[in-house]
Amino acid sequence: MGDKDFFREIKDIDKVIHEPSRLAIMAVLYGVEEGDFKFLLNMTGLSKGNLSAHVSKLENAGYIKVEKKFVGKKPLTLYSITEKGRSAFEIYLKNLERITSKITGKN
Question: Closest Cα to residue 17, out of 47, 51, 57?
């Protein structure tokens, strides 16, 4: 377990996704077609400000799409995972699984 490749795997894990709040957002959006702001608030338990900040980082990375529109006169913001985000999340999960299996010795 102490080889350089193992530690490189840990060091190279996607830090944008690895932050717990962003990991929660990605996990929620991975399982749905789209969700609105209130849905993400309820699912993640984040404050409005924290959710907005983390969503911005994920959007800037190209991992999620933010769509703003109006339903009648009420604003609605919808979030969905992009193909790049879906791929990055799947790679992240595989890397995390590989790292944990090396630590525990379970394959």
Answer: 57
Pick among 1.10.10.10, 3.50.50.60, 3.20.20.70, 3.40.50.620: CATH of 4-104? 1.10.10.10
Q: Is the dihedral of CA 57, 60, 9, 29 positive or negative?
A: positive
pTM for the model stands at: 0.89
pLDDT tens digit string along 14-23? 999 999 999 9
The helix (run of H) or strand (run of E) holding residue 3 is none
Q: Where are the chain's structural domains? A: 4-104
CA distance 83 to 44: 22
Residue 12, SS3 per DSSP: coil
Please give the structure tokens belonging to residue 49.
């400000």
